[in-house]
Write a structure and sequence with these properties.
Blueprint lengths: L4 E8 L3 H12 L4 E4 L8 H4 L20 H6 L9 H14 L6 E2 L3 E8 L4 E7 L2 E10 L22 E3 L14 E5 L3 H13 L2 E6 L5 E3 L7 H9 L1 H9 L19 H14 L15 H18 L3 H6 L12 E3 L2 H4 L5 E5 L5 E5 L2 E4 L3 E3 L2 E4 L8 H4 L2 E3 L6 H4 L18 E3 L12 H21 L5 E3 L1 H16 L28 H13 L5 E3 L1
Parallel strand pairs: 1-2, 1-6, 2-3, 4-17, 6-18, 7-16, 8-9, 8-16, 9-12, 10-11
Antiparallel strand pairs: 4-5, 5-6, 13-14, 14-15, 19-20
Helix pairs in contact: 1-14, 14-16
Length: about 525
């Protein structure tokens, strides 16, 4: 008879979340196993190898803080690290903390079933095997399942089709090629300028324009690095008090309480500094339409200044609130459209009808291309978890429970699925924050919770439905008071046809962290421990 391997915990995914979760559990003396579908670690930075892929939170912040030795010794080379550098960092972490023996690559978790009698999860793997674990931690990522557009004829296209989220590891040479890019989110905005440097022509198919702020990327100033490293703990602590958990220099003033000159000066300063901190120029940009409109007008003017053809500038200008779809950060995005070999097809006027062997056909014209880049994003936040067949204690399937949208207590656990934790799950700040600190916060919370269970000889923890309902209601209330539900973003699942329209992340890092602390300190209120 084949023996089924038994672990204290199975961690699904070997991105930044899975790596640190493994490290923490091992520190607690637990036998944990990381199962990763890819052939390497790094998650996002393993899969997204398109030209120009890099972080848009400065590297000094978009990095682990759990080990002071690690954060002191690692040298970032640029303000925003490139994908290869981030991937090297993930591999360095796996080496440095000797994580490899407990990581199983090239293996997908396909199903998890809770055996209530044994108090164990039965975990099914592909290639075929069954393992058991007391705990399962979903470190499966919020942006790890590519969204392939349902365009008729796509499979008939003669040339290669590349999705930015599954980029070939050997790279792609676009020299002399006519390239069609579908999508204008962050991935497109980062890659289009670099594709245009190589390609014979680039045709960008835009369904919705996006706001983008210049990155002003460059090599890191050694004095700035030394300064942060001398006070790293304080720097990190201060960021926990900021709305997005990042050093956005949050301005406490309303955009509507300053005069035009002051407002303009603040926006200009932030545009010159570059990056996502633009969204924290005033305290009410994400809460008040009128305040937001001032930011919108400012960026519109910038786009008009950067794009020479006024009609093209108008087509590239969004009419949604700033930040409602995730703000983008670019290097030469708008300027790239001033080149003769780069053109824009506005799908709002002429939607794509089909792809055929030679290219893309809209209602008004056929565009011949040699290859297609799908920068069409992800089935975000729920995509990876929903693709695992998960059955809880009463035989309920997670896919059924979440059919009308995800429901999770604090984004960490979901009632009826005991001993199963989610890292940066729906209902936590997650993608509305600097993700690395948010990942570490969740890992620490989960590890401490398990430690608490061991100390109190508890073997099962489950979220209470009433607490979960109350939390989900609170998440929605906070979102409804903001600009976020006002446009068709992936935060709402609106980018995936048929997905329930529910705002998934929680807005506000400091209150969230405090709430998690209170709940843990009070002995895990809202959870049943048995
Ligand atoms: P991931 O890195 O997504 O890793 C999840 C892993 O789980 C993947 O490797 C996947 O293969 C694996 N997996 C999923 N399902 C299964 C399964 N069933 N079985 C086995 N394995 C499975 N965030 C920021 O805060 N700042 C940024 O600047 C930033 N830049 C980004 C740039 C890009 C191009 C993208 C796509 C995202 C970016 N993000 C950024 C978000 C980014 O996803 C997170 O910062 C972070 O890397 C997520 O780490 P993770 O470990 O939670 O998930
Ligand atoms: O994906 P997206 P992404 N026909 O969903 C369009 C992080 N990230 O990969 O808006 C035509 O933003 C879609 O149009 P619309 C970051 O969190 C960070 O770019 O749905 N078009 C949209 O324009 C980011 O937000 C960085 O109307 C179709 C685009 O495809 C998240 O990952 C870099 C279509 C998808 O944009 C996702 O970014 C990259 C269709 N059928 C990613 N379907 C940094 O800079 C979709 N689109 C750090």
């Amino acid at each position: 008879m084949q023996t089924v391997k038994m672990y204290d915990a199975v961690v699904v995914g070997a991105g930044f979340a899975g790596l640190y979760m493994l490290h923490r559990l091992r520190q607690q003396g637990m036998q944990a196993r990381v199962i990763e579908a890819g052939d390497g670690v790094g998650g996002t930075w393993y899969w997204n190898r398109y030209p120009g892929a890099r972080c848009d939170i400065p590297s000094m912040e978009y990095s682990y803080q759990f080990s002071d030795e690690l954060q002191q010794e690692w040298q970032w080379s640029e303000r925003y690290a490139t994908q290869p550098e981030l991937l090297r960092y993930a591999n360095h972490v796996a080496d440095r903390f000797e994580l490899w023996p407990d990581i199983q690559l090239s293996t997908r978790v396909t199903a998890c079933r809770f055996d209530a009698d044994a108090g164990l999860w039965q975990v099914t793997l592909d290639p075929g095997a069954e393992v058991q674990a007391r705990f399962v931690v979903m470190a499966t990522g919020c942006l790890s399942v590519p969204n392939f557009p349902d365009i008729p004829g796509l499979q008939d296209f003669d040339g290669p089709v590349y999705h930015t989220g599954q980029w070939p590891h050997e790279g792609v040479d676009f020299s002399g090629r006519r390239v069609g890019v579908i999508g204008t989110g962050s991935s497109a905005i980062q890659s289009i300028p670099l594709i245009a440097e190589q390609a014979q022509s680039v045709t960008v198919f835009q369904r919705t324009p996006n706001y983008s702020i210049p990155a002003h990327n460059g090599p890191l100033d050694p004095d700035y690095v030394a300064d942060i490293k001398a006070n790293y703990a304080d720097y990190r602590a201060a960021n926990w008090q900021r709305g997005f958990g990042a050093d956005f220099r949050d301005n406490e003033l309303s955009a509507l309480e300053v005069d035009d000159e002051q407002r303009q000066a603040e926006y200009e300063a932030r545009w010159a500094r570059g990056g996502l901190a633009f969204l924290a120029a005033f305290s009410d940009l994400v809460f008040d339409d009128d305040a937001n409109a001032t930011a919108r007008d400012f960026i519109r003017n910038k786009i008009q200044g950067l794009v020479e053809d006024p009609q093209l500038a108008a087509q590239l200008t969004p009419d949604t609130p700033v930040g409602c779809k995730r703000l983008c950060v670019d290097t030469n995005y708008y300027e790239t459209f001033n080149q003769d070999h780069v053109s824009l097809v506005d799908l709002r006027e002429h939607p794509i009808e089909a792809v055929d062997a030679g290219g893309v056909r809209t209602a008004s014209q056929a565009y011949e291309v040699d290859c297609l880049v799908l920068a069409t994003g992800f089935d975000a936040m729920t995509g990876a978890v929903s693709r695992i067949d998960i059955t809880g204690s009463q035989g309920q399937r997670l896919a059924d429970k979440w059919a009308e949208g995800p429901r999770a207590y604090l984004g960490l656990a979901t009632a009826g699925f005991p001993n199963l934790f989610l890292i940066t799950g729906p209902g936590s700040p997650s993608v509305l924050s600097n993700m690395l600190p948010s990942i570490e916060h969740h890992v620490n919370w989960i590890a401490e919770c398990i430690e608490h269970m061991q100390r109190h000889q508890k073997s099962v923890i489950d979220a209470q439905l009433a607490a979960e309902d109350e939390w989900v209601e609170h998440v929605n209330e906070v979102a409804d008071a903001s600009i976020y539900p006002r446009c068709n973003s992936w935060y709402l699942g609106a980018n995936v046809p048929g997905k329930s329209r529910v705002f998934m992340p929680y807005l506000g890092v400091p209150p969230y962290v405090e709430k998690c602390r209170e709940i843990a300190d009070a002995g895990y209120t809202g959870f049943s421990l048995g």
